[in-house]
Specification:
heterodimer, A: 290 residues, alpha/beta, Rossmann fold, 4-stranded antiparallel sheet, 35% helix, 24% strand, globular, B: 267 residues, 6-stranded mixed sheet, 11 helices, 40% helix
Chain lengths: 290, 267
């Protein structure tokens, strides 16, 4: 079966005043159908730019050079026109952002924004049908009083409620790929746990493939089937979540895991800032059959 | 020996929709040299408590005492020197137009620390204490990494030798490797300088590893107060158990610990 996403040897350069800066040094990553894959790394590692390339957003900027191939559902993104790439966004691929309240438009009620999303997938849908469909979708993310929510502005709802609305909208057009960039980081822990569980149930039910971008190893462990660890624009380790967490093979992965404070105690470990070992060749665990 | 004492502290804010009770009758003693964590979700009142300890606004009822003496609603310079603050985001707590030297210098000048001629050397030694080279003094905040900026904020907080430091989510904007190093630095400074910390955070795994005692807040009320070991061994309040069971964890041991509380919640 064709992978939903297949990235091979992806490079990214930004041209600036003082020359060219290489941000991605040849990243390869694949996501099978219905698979939940996490890209884990620190700020500046290149995880968010990778997502933006997949969405086709970075290629359009001046001073950006993208190399390698990105295939979405078997189609090379580079072979698509700008229009065709734009048509994929919000339909075949969609995105959930870190802060739900600021990624919704503050001056339109939720209902209006929901209709706009539905019209991307089905341009002719009537106002009434859109409202009915939105109510069903909100019901799927455990929002019972959908009438009130659809009539509200984002600032009138809690962060957790907005995040559920975002999840419902992102999955409204049955995308093949959902990109979630640090979802829930801006939320309280109990709300984060709830919305992550909800998101997992939803993508499992719809067989949606997910590219999950996060710096939080604990969240990744609970959400992803497979993970890629990225450091300074290079993949340093990949494998099933279980394999990587049970036997982290790369020095950087081990340092990341050691640095996370444990709920069971044990103090704060002594951590080197950066070690030459962090640039050692990647450790690729055997992939479980998809 | 009690350093900071909150006695029946209540804070009300008036809004067009009526009064909001942000902090509801809270009493809490913090001993000298102790690290007390204040834990809760948004709206729990933890930042309001921090602001009252810092004297940004007074309590509506009750009082705050330092070393046994009640602090007035309007604090003098001497009072302000007793408590310092480290905020979550050093990019917004340091003036972006000022060099690191100018930011540190201001703290020393305002509180008149040391002789004027000695201040440049004092600034260099403050930076050394937080693990930064003196060459960073000439830089602007934008020229430093997130971890380095937070170290500068810490250097500024210890500049006038305040016995008490309020840390408001000091590491939640940092990457985990940087977080570990900044937490170690804070631990070392506390031991070396005999500092007292009020550590505000939502991250219970951090709390487990840095705090002596934990105060759990829900909707402005102190719902549980216990020694860290005791709290994680047997959290008494359902809200505390809910908080602990929502923490994303890395190891099986941690999952087991969490699941135990989850079961007791469902029981």
């Amino acid at each position: 079966m064709t992978d939903t996403l297949n990235i091979r040897d992806l490079t990214l350069d930004f041209k600036g005043h003082s020359g060219t800066a290489r941000v991605l040094h040849g990243i390869s990553l694949r996501i099978g159908r219905g698979e939940r894959v996490a890209l884990v790394g620190e700020s500046g590692s290149g995880k968010s730019v990778t997502a933006r390339i997949v969405l086709g957003l970075l290629q359009e900027l001046r001073g950006v050079r993208v190399g390698g191939t990105v295939e979405f559902d078997g189609r090379d993104l580079a072979s698509l026109t700008r229009r065709q790439r734009a048509a994929l966004r919000g339909t075949a691929m969609s995105m959930i952002f870190q802060d739900p309240t600021s990624s919704l438009n503050p001056v339109y009620p939720i209902g209006t924004q929901f209709t706009e999303v539905l019209r991307r997938g089905e341009p002719g849908i009537s106002e009434r049908d859109a409202a009915l469909r939105a109510a069903t979708l909100l019901n799927d993310v455990s929002i019972r009083d959908s009438g009130r929510v659809l009539g509200s502005y984002p600032f009138q709802l809690s962060g957790g409620m907005n995040q559920r609305v975002m999840i419902a909208m992102a999955l409204a057009n049955e995308p093949a790929l959902l990109i979630a960039d640090e979802p829930g980081t801006a939320l309280d822990v109990t709300v984060q746990a709830q919305t992550l569980g909800l998101m997992r149930d939803m993508v499992a039910a719809h067989q949606t493939s997910v590219l999950f971008i996060s710096h939080n190893l604990g969240v990744v462990r609970e959400f992803a089937d497979r993970i890629y660890v990225i450091y300074k624009g290079r993949i340093v380790e990949s494998g099933t979540t279980r394999a990587v967490f049970d036997a982290p093979g790369h020095a950087y992965t081990r340092a990341l895991m050691a640095a996370v404070p444990r709920l069971t105690g044990g103090g704060i470990p002594e951590i080197d800032d950066a070690s030459a070992d962090f640039l050692a060749p990647a450790v690729l665990h055997a992939e479980a059959a998809p | 020996m009690t350093l900071l004492s909150l006695r029946n502290v209540t804070k009300r804010f008036s809004t067009p929709a009526g009064d909001v009770l942000a902090v509801d009758d809270v009493s809490l003693d913090v001993a000298r040299g102790e690290c007390v964590a204040i834990v809760g979700e948004s709206g729990s009142g933890k930042s309001t408590i921090a602001n009252m300890i810092l004297g940004i606004y007074p309590p509506s009822e009750g009082e705050i005492a330092f070393d046994g003496a009640t602090l007035p609603a309007r604090r003098s310079l001497q009072h302000r020197r007793l408590v310092q603050l480290v905020q979550q985001n050093p990019l917004s707590s340091l003036n972006p137009r000022r060099s690191i030297a100018a930011s540190l210098r201001l703290a020393l000048d305002v509180h008149d620390i040391g002789a004027r001629a000695d201040r440049p050397a004092l600034m260099a030694s403050l930076l050394a204490e937080v693990g930064l080279p003196a060459s960073h003094l000439a830089r602007a905040p934008a020229g430093l990494s997130g971890g380095e900026r937070q170290r500068v904020a810490i250097a500024r907080a210890i500049a006038c030798s305040s016995p008490l430091v309020v840390l408001d989510e000091p590491t939640s904007a940092l990457d985990v490797l940087v977080q570990a190093r900044v937490l170690r630095l804070l631990n070392d400074l506390r031991a070396k300088r005999g500092l007292t910390f009020v550590f505000i955070t939502h991250d219970l795994a951090v709390v487990r590893n840095v705090a002596d005692r934990v105060a759990v807040f829900e909707k402005g009320r102190l719902v549980e107060l216990a020694a860290t070991e005791a709290l994680f061994a047997a959290p008494a309040h359902p809200y505390t158990r809910r908080l602990i069971s929502a923490v994303p964890v890395l190891t099986q041991d941690e999952s087991d610990l969490r699941d135990r509380f989850m079961e007791s919640l469902n029981a």
